[in-house]
UniProtKB/TrEMBL annotation:
One of its GO terms (molecular function) is hydrolase activity. It comes from the Bacteria. InterPro entries: AB_hydrolase_3, AB_hydrolase_fold, GDXG_lipolytic_enzyme. Residues 79-277 form the Alpha/beta hydrolase fold-3 domain. Gene3D superfamilies: alpha/beta hydrolase. This is Alpha/beta hydrolase. Pfam families: Abhydrolase_3. SUPFAM superfamilies: alpha/beta-Hydrolases. It comes from Cutibacterium porci. Keywords: Hydrolase.
Amino acid sequence: MMDPDLLLDSSLREALRTVPPQECWNPGPMRASGAALLDAAPADHSGVDLAVHHINDDAGLEVRVLTPAASPRPHALILSVHGGGLVAGRARYDDAWNAEISRRTGAIVISPEYRLAPEYPYPAALDDCLEAWTWALHEFNPSMSLIYGDSAGGNLAAGLALRLRDQGAIGAVDALFLIEPVLDDRLDTPSMRAGINTPVWDLPNARASWAAYLGPGQADRYAAPARATELSGLPEVFLLVNQCDPLRDEGIRFAQNLTDSNVPTELAMLAKSCHGVLGMAGVGIADRAREMVLGKLRESLDTIRRRKGGIVD
């Protein structure tokens, strides 16, 4: 059985002391503790222009648009969906990371401020992501586009890709990046059953998160992408899991199902890492993880560019 006390990288232990407790059964204080830590953190926007657009006044949908200053009309678009257990998190908390993605890839990065559960259960968040995606395609008309999501954002990214596929609109998506994604409401994998008290994310939080997100409804393949029985037609996928993460096995199973559906898929597992590792500051293993993801994003866009005959920025 997975034992984080034996597996977890020692350099992560000190960083974990600064992580606010995740309490998805009590989202108000969870949001407040996150805000106390992250609202005061300066975000490095150097080399990137940041704009905020309100694209649906009725739903209050806001999107943050980060554009590389050196290339004001780039041909690549990345929709970046934030995490937070579907009950917390803000798009602006990812500004520094999204700015880094924009700088390093030369892409426009769009981050939607989707509605949170339990006030807005499924499908509100997914509807917001679809609206942000549709708006971004119309606004920027990119030659290449990619959907990226971390944790709960990975759930929404995968659900959005499935929804676009079923609507006949998946052709606009060139690649899908799922970082430590939340995929399965059944919570019955070995790693999830063992995750009683794992760092950052655990079984009690997963139960509370799914209960808040689904509300009185039932999970379908868009709410819980692991329930999709047929994944063919999705674009190429990069999927990252952590060795000491209760979400590990559902990510691995999803990669297997993608392969069985003949979807080009790359699966990576970070050794000795836990959930949320990309957000850990000043930790060697986190620095390496971020560099790997940035490298894969650049590699994916380069591959798409070559496949499309070379796009000149």
